[in-house]
Amino acid sequence: MSVPGPLELEGYRRCAAITRRHGTTYYWGVALLPLERRRHVHAVYALCRAADDIVDDEGATSPEQVAQTTRRLEAFRHTVLQAVDGAPVDDPVLAAVVRTLRSCALDQAVLDRFFGAMAADLTTTRYETWEDLLGYMDGSAAVIGEMMLPVLRPTTPEALGPARALGLAFQLTNFIRDVAEDLDRGRVYLPQADLRAHGADPALRRVTPQWRTFLAEQIERNRALYAEADRGIPLLPGASARCVATARLLYSQILDRIEAADHDVFSSRIRVPTPVKAATAARALVRLPAPVPA
Predict the structure, then answer these.
(1) Which residues contact 290 (CB under 8 A, 6 or more apart)?
(2) Do the beta carbons of residue 92 and residue 8 sit within 8 Å?
(3) Helices 209-230 & 160-177 angle (0-180, nearest 10)
């Protein structure tokens, strides 16, 4: 593909800034990729963030605002798809996103699943079972793993399953960490049946024996997804393997810190400090094998 033009270069710069500001784990993980592929990850993140910001905007899901938010989300989806089809673009971020979507030859069905999940956030605030939650996460998380695969350039199609698992693992970690933040938006991204089985109630916003047992079970489920995702790392070329292994390590450290906090996800947002992320990325350059041509 031709080199990016001035508008696209400015867009990639802004996408990188968005990723660093809102998704520091992704930012430091993909720092190990070559520049062109790093730009693609930043662009995919910026696209997902823009849609997420629409549905997470203050009051976006209030009864009087849902219809308007739905129109905003649909207008954004339409703008993206029209731009991919060749409509003129004057927004730098959109220009970068479009270049990435074309370069990675992403199927529109992938984008449709993603936007479908974003639309679900406007009307669905609870998920009864783990299977129900997985249905939502297919479009909000597993699909992100699918979007990233062309950037990572796996050596075999067998990398698809682990890529989807990694997307699911990342999002479940977010759901576990962000319980209080999601409650503020009127949402609970944890299986209601599991909560009832343990007698746990996140609305109490405190750690009880029931909550501790429930969350330990969810963390175990989360780690099983990471283990499934790990099978895909050897199926990636060197630079991509470094990127994924680093991001996976950083995200899983959030679970370690939640356990160290006695499963308290209510008092403050559990974070892996930025210096730790940077140091982890630096160590990955030393400890993992040298990249092979991709």
Answers:
(1) 238
(2) yes
(3) 160
Residues 42 and 19 sit within 8 Å (Cβ to Cβ): yes
Give yes or no for a contact between 215 and 176, defined as CB atoms under 8 angstroms apart.
Answer: yes
- Tell me the three-class secondary structure of the chain, residue by residue: CCCCCHHHHHHHHHHHHHHHHHCHHHHHHHCCCCHHHHHHHHHHHHHHHHHHHHHHCCCCCCCCCHHHHHHHHHHHHHHHHHHHCCCCCCCHHHHHHHHHHHHCCCCHHHHHHHHHHHHHCCCCCCECCHHHHHHHHHHHHHHHHHHHHHHHCCCCHHHHHHHHHHHHHHHHHHHHHCHHHHHHCCCCCCEHHHHHHHCCCHHHCCCCHHHHHHHHHHHHHHHHHHHHHHCCHHHCCHHHHHHHHHHHHHHHHHHHHHHHCCCCCCCCCCCCCHHHHHHHHHHHHHHCCCCCCC
Given a cut of 60, whether residue 39 has pLDDT beyond it is yes
Q: Which residue(s) pair with 127 in the sheet? A: 191
pLDDT at 292: 35
Short-list 49, 258, 84, 280, CA closest to 172: 258
CA nearest neighbour of 234 among 160, 164, 155:
155
- Kindly state the tokens that stand for 176: 């576990």
What does the pLDDT look like over 63-90, one tens digit per residue?
A: 889 999 999 999 999 999 999 999 999 9
Write out the two tokens for 189. Answer: 């991204």
Q: How far apart are CA 69 and CA 90, in angstroms?
A: 23
CA 85 – CA 220 distance, rounded (Å): 43
Residue 293: is its pLDDT beyond 50?
A: no
- The single residue listed with the structure tokens 């969350």 is 215
